[in-house]
Amino acid sequence: MQNYRVPLLELPPEGRQFQLADAAIWQSPLAEFGMDCRIVQPLRAEIQLIPTEGGCLIRGHLSGQVALPCNRCAEEALTGIDASFEDFEELPDAAQDRPPHLLQDSESQALHGTERLIFEGASPMLDLAAVCWEEFMLALPVSPLCKTDCKGLCPRCGVNRNQSSCNCSEDEGDPRLAVLRGLKLPRQ
User: Fold this and answer.
1) Would residue 76 count as lying in a domain?
2) CB 88 within 8 A of CB 57
3) Percent of the chain residues past pLDDT 90, beyond the cut
């Protein structure tokens, strides 16, 4: 994979625009974390870095399409990615005073708490691949569905209820609570 580190102290005052479409930005972490996710349409990121006092403003847009397992039936759920984002990367004060190799262990960990900001020598570098991965993870749905009315799997026999029905009886619930099923509460 190509190196996508940008030296933050060398950005022009008007900022700089980047377009990233390298599949390795997303494929490598997907394989590393063992995620069940397949890229259907290439993922593309447009990122603008604008230097500000004390840091850098990050604006961008991520688009593409992925296939994830449905949260109810485990079939493939196509999910469009169309996310705009804006973030701020603050330059630590300690980084401006001393190079990272001269920092105490606790200070060094604080500077490297985010994988997006990396120091090469005394120069802070923003890893655009890490920004893309973070925004991709935030753009994924919490509960992907193959369709909004997905019926899911039968909890007893495991048949996909979208494809066929089963003869399993509906669970009546905990038998100890059977006396409460007919309870009607008065309206207030």
Assistant:
1) yes
2) yes
3) 57
Residue-number span of the structural domain to which 50 is assigned: 5-139
pLDDT tens for each residue of 41-69: 999 999 999 999 888 999 999 999 999 99
Instruction: Report the side by side order of strands in the sheet with 16-20.
Output: 16-20, 38-52, 55-69, 76-90
Question: Do the domain assignments include residue 109?
Answer: yes
For residue 40, the surrounding DSSP H or E stretch is strand 38-52
Sheet with 5-7: list strands edge to edge: 5-7, 123-127, 117-120
Domain tally, the chain: 1
Residue that has been written with the tokens 């007893």 in this structure:
156
pTM for this structure? 0.76
pLDDT in tens, 75-101: 999 999 999 999 999 987 644 444 444
Hey, what's the torsion of the CAs at 149, 150, 154, 157, to 10 degrees? 140
Contacts of 63 (CB under 8 A, 6+ apart): 43, 44, 81, 82, 83
- Please say whether the beta carbons of 166 and 157 come within 8 A: yes
